[in-house]
Structures are given as structure tokens and as C-alpha cells.
Amino acid sequence: MKAFRDWDLACKINAAILLFLLVAGGLIGGVLYWKTRQILSEEVDTSARAAVRLAAERINRDFPVVEAAAQELALSIELLRPDEAQQKAMIRATLERLRKSVPALCGISIAYIPYGADPESRYYMLYTHVNKAGEIEVARIGGEEYQYFKFDWFTIPQLLDRAVWTEPYLDLYADILMSTRSQPIRDAGGKFIGMTGFDLSLEAINAQVVAADVYGYGQEFLISRFGRFVAFPEDPAHPYETKELRDEAAHLSQSTIFSYADLLRAKMFSGDDASGRLRQIGQEMLRGRSGEARGRIFNRRAGVERIFYAPVSAPGWSLGVAYPESLLMAPLNSLTYRIVPVAAAALLLCLAATGILIRILTRPLGRLADAAGSIGAGNFNTPLPVPKGGDQIGRLAEAFRAMQQALGSYTEKVRETTAARERIESELEVARQIQMGILPRMLPPLPDAREFSLFATLRPARKVGGDLYDFFYLDEFHYCFIVGDVSDKGIPAALFMAVTQTLQRSEAEKLREPGPLVSRINELLSRNNETMMFVTYFLGILDVRTGEVRYTNAGHNPPCIRRAGGALELLSTRHGPALGVVPGTVYGSGSVRLGDGDTFVLYTDGVTEAENPGHDPFGSGALLRVLAYCPDSSPAGLGKEILQAVDRFAGEAEQADDITLLILRFNAFAEKGAPCLNS
């Protein structure tokens, strides 16, 4: 038989714990019984209350997200005035994006007052939802059989003149129980013209309500701001009893906690007045309070229940869970029969024995820890203690000895690696300077240009990046400006960007039309492109005499024109895919005319896809709001406002993609000598 010192460390610790439990379990139980009962009872209440509050907060998280999305959609419609196809695309994209973070979202609608959107049609409602096959459908609905403007979700917020969460209801079109966030849409004069609706499925919300049961045997329920049941309590032990009550109650979506209390008084009279207690609980929940109550209400066969409740603040709802008190106290009752009166004396003996044993067992570990500390301070020749046995401590000492021998060579490798890293950092800095040198310089400016002013900037996510911009005169009256975004980041993207920058300059001397010029650049980039890198690309040519811009968009983000009066116009037409992927592609072109004071805004997806610490994107909607509400300023001032808005949104989040802006303002009546470039 092995000596005790040769036992595994786990065996030594287990022996000590066993000794402690055997001695302490027999001695301390009686002395600590009542105190333990009090502490555990408080712990049960605290855990249940915390679980209900946490579940209420989890349910509540989805509502602000939906509220913000509804407000954003309504604002976009008010600002952009999209046509029917664009509105359908907007609600479909919004549903696809939000369902990832809000699984309960089942539909989005845009509904207008009669003849509000189409003077020839009384009914105009666009609705997108997930059908039974799991696919997203978008349709225009409304008619005599579905007069949406008479439903509560349309009329109540219209009367209140504000956004609201509706009471639960059965939608006749989708045929599901839901609650809707209704957000008014107004015209330019502030008059109500319609509504955006974001529908949450009560079935999906019920699945979240179940998570409030921390112990697994509670009965959960969720009520609305007027006491209507969103989720109805169920008795897992005796489901037929609850079914009997629900069969005699009103339809679930029309039943309230107070009508359920009336049913208890009429059907299930009891001496402790379950009906009155349930009414008190309902009143406290509707006041938005958290709390606890006792009574025989839902599962009367299990005896007295403890009912915990907490508010779901965003929609004004409230969550509750009822637990049978006998099950909550079951662990305490079991503990009662396991405690003996001699617990105090046993605890003292156990503590003394365990303390001595732990000191004996941990003494080698203490010596080894001292030696490890010395080695960690750089004293690699520190002698290690000689193990006296073959347990884990002995093996650990041998491992430390091997580590001690390897640390010297490892330290030298670290020095070499650090030096190599510093060389790489230096080379990357040189590469960044070279790349920035490829971009057109703001100085010296074009001293004779007076027909336009321009701002351009590039902020790479790494030392070097793949975004690009360029601007130059083709002849006396035509000015070319370009923005591109190369796939990937880092050195490969920077090299591809340099090739693109060189080609566009050389080919622009031969071709003066945007379509043929972009087609030629694509053809050259596609040759021998084994890595399949590509660049989204926008090229525009401004006629400084008339303000006409002829342009070609090769898979790039749609630019925006901010008219002198403040109106926004998106150039969403794309004339082909990104450059460098499909050789032989013939790119078309388009044209738009700029008036005096009109501003042409180009950007890369580093602006719209910038993320905050919660991984939410900045989005094109936020960019449009900056353009819409930014005071009339120079291109440099507008560019500064956009960059500051992105920085405020991103906060402490690391920049993930290159950010590039090019802003051009046409000055049809500019005085001679006006500056043309801003950086």
C-alpha cells in the first residue's frame, strides 16, 4: 500500500473534505438550524424575485428596438416619400434585419388614410410578414372585407396623436394573436396621413414568458397595461383544472386578470378569498410595481402559493410567476431531518483538523510558489525544491524544472520576435505614407476653379487600406471625380487600389465618357486577377458650364444629392457589377443636373456599416438624417459633420472598415477666386 505522501493530490483533498463533512455534519446542524432556515427562506424569495425581474427585462429588451425601428421607418417615409416599390423593399429589408434580434416580430405594415397615398384608391396598405412556410411575403392589402383604418391599431394612435402599443388582438389577415407598435406618419405640414405598424406575435412572446420560471414548477402569466392576458397561467401538475377555467372564461385575447378573479368568485369560492387577492395583485401590477403576494389562486390543490411579479416597462405590461409554497420550502424540510444537535462541537474539531492537514499538504506548494515567483522575476537559476513523492506536486516540480530550462531560449526568441515586429511596423508606416501619396493632394488647389468646391478624405481602418478617391480635369470644362472601395483590407487591398488609381489616370487621357472609361478599367483589372479581388467604383464627370454630371456606378453605394433647398435625392441606379470580376462587361451611364448650391455626396460602406459597441450599424438612414438636418455649410463642414456623427455613434468600438468621403458642391454663380478644394 502506498504511503499517504504518495497519494494523488485529489485523494488527499477528498480525504480532508470527507473528514470535515463527517465531523461537521454531525456537530453543527442543531446549532445552526434556525439560522439556516431563515437564510434559505430569504434566498428562495430573492432568487425568485430576481428571476422574474430578469425575465421581465429580457422581454422588455425587444420593445425599444421595435419602437426605434418604427420611428426610423416613419421618418424615412416622411423624408424620402418613396413610391410603392420602394416602400415594399423598405419593410421587407427591415423585417429581415430585425427578426434576427427580435424573433417575436412577425409583420410590418405601412397603412394610409383613405385616398391618402393614392387619390384613386380608398385602401392603401402594404404588409410584409412571415408565412406558414417560413418565407417573407410582401403584399398590398385592404378592402371592404379588411377595412384596416377602422381597427384599433390605426384609430387609437390617430386620436392620441402619438405612437402606442396596442392591446392584444387577433389579426384577421394574418390569423394570429399579436400586439402592434403603431407609429404615425405625417406629411410636410405635420398632418397625419398614415401609420407604420410593427407586429409582435404573442405565441413567440409566450415562449419568453416561460423562461421566467427559475425553478421549473411555477405558473407564469403576462398581462397588458389594461390587465388583459398576453400569456395565461397554466398548471403543469393538473392541466385539466386550468383548462376547465379557461373553457368557461372569455376568449384568451379578451380575458383580463379581473374577469378571471370574477370567475374564481363565482365558480371556486374559498375561505381565503382568492378573488380579492387576485384583484389586489392585478391592481399592483397595473401600477407598474414589483412585489410578492401569498394566496390560494391558480393551483389551489398545491396549497398556498407565492406570487412574484415585475413590470415590463416599455409597453406597460407586467410579468408574474406563481409557485406552490410547499415546493419552494421542500429543500428546507428535507434539511430539517439531517441536522443533529452536536453540530457546533463537530465544526470546531473539523476546523482544527482541516487547518492542520491543509498546512501539511500545501507546504510543498508554498515552496514551489516561492521558487516560481523568483523565476518569474527573471532569476532563471533559482533552485527548485526536491520532491519527496510521486504525486502531482512532485510532477509539477519536474515540469517547473523543464520550464526553467526552456525560459532562457524562449526569452531570446521573444527579443528576436519583438525586433522583427518593430521592423514590420516601420515598413507598414512607410507603406501608409506611400499610399497616401498616391491620392491627389489638396495643395496646391486649383486656383482658377470657381464653379465648384470639393472636400475629400480617407481614413483607413489599418495602416494601409483599400479605399480610394481621385479628382482631376479632363479638359477645360470637364472635371472627373472618383470614389472606390476594394474588397478586403490591408496590404493586398492597398496594392489593388494603387493599380486602380494608376489605370484610371492613364485611361482617362484616352476615353472621356464614363461608361466606356469604366468598361476599359474593368477589362484591365480583370486580366490575371487570380485572387478575384474587386473594387466597387463610382466615376462622375462634371460639366462646369451647365452643372450636368454624367456618371457610372459599378456596384458602389448609391450617392446622395443634397439640393440647395434641403431636399435629398439618391442615385440608386447601378450600371454593372464591381470592377475586376467579370471581364467584357459593358457599363452604361446616367446623368443628373446640379443647380447652384447643390451638393453631391459620395461615400464608401465604411460610413454606413460603422458599428457601435453593440454591433448595430450606423446605416444609410442615419447618414440621410445628417444630410437632412446639417446646416447649409461648405463641403468640408458637411464632411466634418458626417465624420463626427459616425464617431459619436461608434463610441469606443474599433473601426472595422476604411472610411472615405468625397463631397462636391456646384457653385453656378460663384465669384472668381472662390476656393475649390477643402481637406
TrEMBL record:
<feature type="domain" description="HAMP">
    <location>
        <begin position="359"/>
        <end position="412"/>
    </location>
</feature>
<keyword id="KW-0472">Membrane</keyword>
<dbReference type="GO" id="GO:0007165">
    <property type="term" value="P:signal transduction"/>
</dbReference>
<dbReference type="Pfam" id="PF00672">
    <property type="entry name" value="HAMP"/>
</dbReference>
<dbReference type="Pfam" id="PF22673">
    <property type="entry name" value="MCP-like_PDC_1"/>
</dbReference>
<dbReference type="GO" id="GO:0016791">
    <property type="term" value="F:phosphatase activity"/>
</dbReference>
<dbReference type="InterPro" id="IPR052016">
    <property type="entry name" value="Bact_Sigma-Reg"/>
</dbReference>
<dbReference type="InterPro" id="IPR003660">
    <property type="entry name" value="HAMP_dom"/>
</dbReference>
<dbReference type="InterPro" id="IPR001932">
    <property type="entry name" value="PPM-type_phosphatase-like_dom"/>
</dbReference>
<protein>
    <submittedName>
        <fullName>SpoIIE family protein phosphatase</fullName>
    </submittedName>
</protein>
<keyword id="KW-0812">Transmembrane</keyword>
<dbReference type="GO" id="GO:0016020">
    <property type="term" value="C:membrane"/>
</dbReference>
<dbReference type="InterPro" id="IPR036457">
    <property type="entry name" value="PPM-type-like_dom_sf"/>
</dbReference>
<dbReference type="Pfam" id="PF07228">
    <property type="entry name" value="SpoIIE"/>
</dbReference>
<feature type="transmembrane region" description="Helical">
    <location>
        <begin position="15"/>
        <end position="34"/>
    </location>
</feature>
<keyword id="KW-1133">Transmembrane helix</keyword>
<feature type="transmembrane region" description="Helical">
    <location>
        <begin position="335"/>
        <end position="358"/>
    </location>
</feature>
<keyword id="KW-0378">Hydrolase</keyword>
